[in-house]
Amino acid sequence: MEVDNIFGAIDIAISGLRAQNKQMEVITSNIANSKTTDAGKGEPYRRLELKFKTEDDKISGVGLDKITADRSNFYRIYDPSNPAADEQGYVAMPNVSLIREMTNLNLATRAYQANAAIMRRYQQMVETALELLR
Amino acid sequence: MSKTSNTIDLLGAGIRAEELRQKAIANNVANMGTVGYRRFDVKFEQLLAKAIDSKGRVDLAEIEPFLYQPRRGPVKANGNDVSLEEEVGAMVKNTLRHKAYLRILNKKYEQIERAISTSK
Asked: How far apart are CA B41 and CA A75, in angstroms?
């Protein structure tokens, strides 16, 4: 995304808002599926992670790269009565840690607020400039 | 409209474009959940800039703000590409531009008024 006009700051803030909105979607999916033992491929749900990207040599907003699966190990809990349990009575659970997701959710919310604050502040700046025209 | 690069006419054209854009944004927000809806935007400033660059004098009758669908945002699962954040941003920009145009228009009228009152 290229920015080159006086509303560039607003465009950048919007890209931040959209990125954090997507991030929140990913976190929601992780939390909703924190106990999903069957994700269709014979294994539990894998935690998803959203990657952001930007062009490093110029001022530009944040862009979405891709959503990748977290390859870390699944949690194994002992629950012999569970139909999905193996011979030893262990069930593989998604590699989602609710504490981690809640922390990320807080971060995403704060980042969203920060971008919204920037947008409001920039709007006030332009309005200050426009006051000079009175 | 006659061939002109009159400030007041230019500002008038800008304000009309803004009005249309405001409608487009309202329509986009209203259709945020409509399946298959693609967002609308208004093309005007680029056309105006191009016309000013090429001729110096601008025939405003030739440049009309028009609605188009950019069709480049990420599309959601229901085929809809409206994002609330983008619309809010567009609205903020639109409002600021509108304010700027109105202030300049006001200044212009003040100038004319001053010219008239000094002759008294």
From this structure: 48
* Length of chain A, in residues: 134
Query: Quick one: which of A3, A102, A81, A85 has its CA closest to A44?
Result: A85
Angle at B4 between CA B2 and CA B10, to 5 degrees: 110
- Give the integer Cα–Cα distance in Å for A18 and B29: 15
Amino acid at A88: Q
Q: Which of B86, B93, B103 minimises the CB distance to A133? A: B103
Instruction: Please write the tens of the pLDDT for every residue from A34-84.
Output: 988 888 888 899 999 999 988 777 788 898 888 999 999 999 999 889 888
Please tell me the distance from the alpha carbon of residue A109 to that of residue B115, in angstroms, as a whole number.
55
Does B46 touch chain A if contact means CB atoms closer than 8 Å? Answer: no
| Structure tokens, B120 | 């008294």
Half-sphere exposure of A25 (CA within 13 A, CB side): 11
Q: What share of chain B has pLDDT > 90, as a percent?
A: 46
Ordered by start, the domain boundaries in chain B are 7-118
- ipTM for the assembly: 0.74
Question: Which chain A positions have a beta carbon within 8 Å of B88's beta carbon?
Answer: 14, 119
